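Case study 2.
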Amino acid sequence: MNSSKFSKHNLLLSVINNKAFLLMAIMFIVATFASPWFLTVLNLTTLARQISVMAIVATGFTLIFTAGQFDLSIGEILALCGIVYATLTLTMPITFAIIIAVIVGAACGFINGTLIRVFNLPAFVLTLSIAMVYRGITFLITGGASVFGLPDAVVRIGQGSVFGYVPIPTLIMLSVVVIVAVAVNRTVYGRHLIATGGNVEAARVSGIRINVMRLSVYVIAGVCAAIGSIVLTGRQGAAVPNAGDGFALDAIAAVVIGGTAMRGGRSRVVGTLWGVILIAIIGNVLTLLNVSPFWQWIVRGTIIIAAIILDNRTDTILNKIRERDAAKQNAQTAKS
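Prediction:
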């Protein structure tokens, strides 16, 4: 009997920890049968390039949630970095343009984190407001026009391939995901970050510099948004001022579906990648089936709502499991 309960316990935990992958796999199978065009090489390659940008941005957003923070300006930071990057490539070597774009992304993240800390402002309100500032700057730079006529090197980053079939954006995405996953799961920084999001007071007593940790996630998220903008600009062959529309909400859905807690203290970087793929597959198959964009908005909104509910239910189940384990351990200690 105890063995049966133990097996069910492990099975439940396994499903919870891998729910994003399971949902993604199920949706992949459904999409395969829903449209004969889904498994074509052209569609899968296009899907891989689309996934790359969102995955890079969402990976940075994962750190923000891990630390128990919030940011609604990620899309606007991406658009600003894209416009700056594209404009600079017209007058200087691409290497310098990339460096400056990354610095702009990091600076935006630094500004967000600093304002939240210095003025003790709610992250939701502050980032929602400053997103308007970033959007205004973006449109001022080009007068609201897109930047075209980019060098071949810029386009190659977003549209090129290695060995003829591996998209460069996919390699960039995997590099970002691996680096961040290792940082979160294998370093002192990652342990401190999870502790900061899990219990601020306990982390502070342990000597963790809370403000530094919180500021760092905004800077890293800004850098990821800049990298995403570089890939997106190359894929589109142009920089569009409103390119970041919807990125924040999609990133939130992907991160939460992936298993990272909105309240902080639990991080699943690879899970975020599965969440991004899941959302991308849903959007892709709806497009292949010629579903109206208006219905696609409804589906995306429903996914976000479902992700928030799923996150809440996951926390409830995990808390019950922890309480049950603690009670059993106390009972065994009392017997001994």
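The chain has a mean pLDDT of 89.
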